[in-house]
Amino acid sequence: MPHNHGADSEVGTLTTVMLHRPGNELKRLTPRNNDKLLFDGIPWVSRAQEEHDAFADTLRQRGVEVLYLTDLLTETLASEEARAHAISSALSGLHLGDTLRAYLAVALAEASPEELTGLLTAGIRNDEVRGGHGLVTSLLSPYDFLIDPLPNLLFTRDSSVWVRDRVAITSLAMPARKRETQLTELIYTEHPRFAGQTQKIHGWHNEHVEGGDVLLLSPGVVAVGVGERTTPAGVERLARQVFQAELAHTVLAVPIAQERATMHLDTVCTMVDVDKVVMYPNVAHSLMAHAVTVRERGETDTDLVLDVAGAEPFLVAAAKAMQIDTLHQIDTGLDPVTAEREQWDDGNNTLALAPRVAVAYERNDETNDRLEAAGIEVVRIAGSELGSGRGGPRCMSCPVERQPLTTD
Ligand SMILES: NC(=O)NCCC[C@H](N)C(=O)O
């Protein structure tokens, strides 16, 4: 049966979502590598899995189809061509050397699709290989990774993002995450559910854009955070591509502080209704946006001539582009210290299941209370372990299909 994959908003009823159940890749985290691997602590893996299973169950109970990235990958790797592609990309790093690369290529080719998924996601450590011994294996430490683990796969939001009926394969800025998009690209290209019926925009080889920075404010209006992850050139490239494919009429480029606490736009602002956002109060008054529109079309996205407006307050620029009177900020009224604590714990990182229904971490009591007072149904989930990677319900979910808000 053909699917209507895609999303034209942040809040249309969520039909299908891609998640990643945390697995052995989290067991690779140690106090020596957690910073490099972008985790703030060492999660208790079985509890993280329980929390994640509860999150997935909550979504299913609300009628959402949950696709797991690893299931999709394993199904994709049933194809010889996809396997060969996955293996050569995973072994392309310059740290391996020819002897080890050749040995690993054979060993990976002999693995079953399930085993290969495990190796591509949890990685391979030098002390785990039995052959391929030579200069490189001898000189590397036994604990060095030959294929890096991908603990941040948990945050499926960042490695792909649907804009209407197209999927953008993103280009992740941090070295620890770069390989994630090799896997999402492979899934969207080769998995039978997507192959041949999924048009792609952007790509891992393009300028940096991360999905957590991309907010579909309304059909035709895309906001893109520009900060630690998405670069100015990244937003320009994405804007060109969505304009060329006529997926949007306005892209709002939104500068955000280049800090870990605000690594993506969705760490400070998410939508909970067609005209309401929950926003970190400490930035609400300073967040600005440049509206980018098309002045002149051309043959390709590089020929487009863009108009870039001067900076305006984000809520003002957004409302104008969305052609509504006001984009309301739910007034959480939190004192700056509580606001800072709850922002750090992803209080503003909600996942809308439909207009006025949002999944949020239970720990952010005050933000959640204020959301409820404003008429939003808050579906609370536990995230004490999940949160150690600094991501909330929105970060942990890639909507593959939402019911359209567009009426035409
Ligand atoms: N959209 C998001 O904010 N995703 C959270 C990503 C957390 C991950 N540990 C990272 O640093 O990239």
UniProtKB/TrEMBL annotation:
Active site: 395 (amidino-cysteine intermediate)
GO BP: L-arginine deiminase pathway
Pfam families registered for this protein in UniProt: ADI (PF02274)
Enzyme Commission code: 3.5.3.6
Subcellular location(s) of the protein: Cytoplasm
Reactions catalysed according to its record: L-arginine + H2O = L-citrulline + NH4(+)
Keyword Cytoplasm in annotation: yes
Example GO molecular function: arginine deiminase activity
GO cellular component, one term: cytoplasm
InterPro entries xrefs: Arg_deiminase (IPR003876)
Main location: cytoplasm
Key word Hydrolase present: yes
Pathway note: Amino-acid degradation; L-arginine degradation via ADI pathway; carbamoyl phosphate from L-arginine: step 1/2
Keywords: Arginine metabolism, Cytoplasm, Hydrolase
Gene3D superfamilies for this protein: Arginine deiminase (1.10.3930.10), L-arginine/glycine Amidinotransferase, Chain A (3.75.10.10)
Protein family per UniProt: Belongs to the arginine deiminase family.
Stated name of the protein: Arginine deiminase
Species in which this protein is naturally found: Nocardioides currus
Lineage: Bacteria, Bacillati, Actinomycetota, Actinomycetes, Propionibacteriales
Gene: arcA
